[in-house]
Fold:
Amino acid sequence: MLYLVSTPIGNLDDISIRALKVLEESDIIACEDTRNTKKLLNHFNIKNKKLISYHEHNEEVASDRILGLLKDGASISLVSDAGMPCVSDPGYILIKKCKENLVDVVAIPGANAGLTALIASGIESYNYVFHGFLPRKSGDLKKKLTSILNEGYTAIIYESPHRIKNLVEHIVDFEEDRIISVARELTKIYEQVVTDKAINILNFLNSNTIKEKGEFVLIISPNKKNEEKVEIENLLFEIEKLVESGIKVSEALKIVSKKYGVNKREVYKLYHEKYT
Structure:
């Protein structure tokens, strides 16, 4: 059995009782960095565990080795340095191989930096997309970020301390009033989550010392302009359908404006701008 065990992203108290039990009972623990995992195990007095290395540079080879051990009946836990395996961390290759070989995989939920930052940001969380780290090359970054900024959903992005200012600068160039949030040191003593207009976040980053260690989580609010455009198109489409069914334009405008609580004069103006 392969267990995907979520570990704390900062505060060690955030590990679950179930996660500790699974780690204690596992024959082997596959870890992104054995040194970090040893600190975690020592903190919770979990002793004499066989640790094997599993990281982005040996993922293919290590996956085959772990799969062989699983087939031999070993119980193995996979952990990353912090948070959930596979979420901007190694794990996908191993899990895919396990699924292909009918080896059971069980996920042990826990802390996640992206979702922690999202719910603390005050930015709407009904529809969101996790992007992880964006491309490093300037051209690819601008292209990807422009696509994200044009979408009508909340975006979750990870970024390193020495690149966060550059990322926010690109957002400011696109729309300086866009509401965004930056989070750092999550669950730790100096946790900070700041939500404001992009231009104000850039000023905040420029006026504060940024440590080279750790990562930022950036939350970008949806493109409301696109949402408004879609709403208008839907409204006009509904009027058009009513007119096609034989209802007079004036009556269709009245029906739709009342249905959606929109000013009739505004609806009339939008309709005639499009159809006359």
